[in-house]
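Minutes, project check-in
Item: structure for the 300-residue chain
Input as provided by the requester:
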Amino acid sequence: LAIHPSPEPPMSAPLPDTPCYLNGELLPIAQAKVSVLDRGFIFGDGVYEVIPVYGRIPLRLDGHLARLGRSLASVRIRNPRTVDEWTALIRDLIARQTFDDQSLYLQVSRGVAKRDHAFPKDTPPTVFMMVNPLTLPSADQVSRGVTAVTATDNRWYRCDIKSTALLANVMLRQLAVDAGAAEAVLLRDGFLSEGSASNIFVVRDGIVATPAKSHLILSGITYDVITDLARGDGMTLEQRDVSEAEVRGADELWLASSTREVLAITTLDGKAVGNGRPGPMFERMYRLFREYTRRLRLSA
């Protein structure tokens, strides 16, 4: 398996002079300030997107903006920009960075208002965007796989909304961190939902299965890329209910997200998945994904 780790150096936070966007202004991120009465701060009353950028080309920008629109509509926040306006703003912010591979974070909250659970009237949404270098999994993580633990999915019933109210996800991810694992695989009523910050794929007897899109999982853009690549390469892929027994008896498990692309889970709850190494179906998918992002960079 040829490993091609991210060409960008890791960075935990943007530099103080990194340009960001806030409510119509471009300014250094150290100077960006939001009111303490912003409902995103008070209530987590907002939605967000994380868009990976390869060679200054955002991955499936139309898909991300469509999901943003669905999230905004679901929580009844007025979409403050048209698709064309979002596209222009995003491409401009990407162009202003000093690095090519990027992770763009976009957040829209309901805006600044007196603290009251009810929606304020005629309050403009707060719009914020920032960019970090895109730091992808290490060569060791790709070649050896990662460890995960299972956890009960105790989140709300609208996981399809990409809400900034992520406390449950934060707690579930920390559960994994405390166990020395990379991810928590979430189970609800005996069935797989997703990871604390990823979608999950199960491979058994050469068949790839993943939960179908519903209100119980986030409709991941990387999820869409993987399903498209799998079917385009002739893999059998099923989007359906996946039982806990299938998860625990899988030949292979994968996790997928915007910043981790696709990774093999090789240990689950202290037990080897399959033979405890990334399997042949993962290696096939990893090659397909890397070729996909290589073509994206070449399209710049």
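Outcome recorded: DSSP finds eight helices and 15 strands in the chain.
No further action items on this chain.
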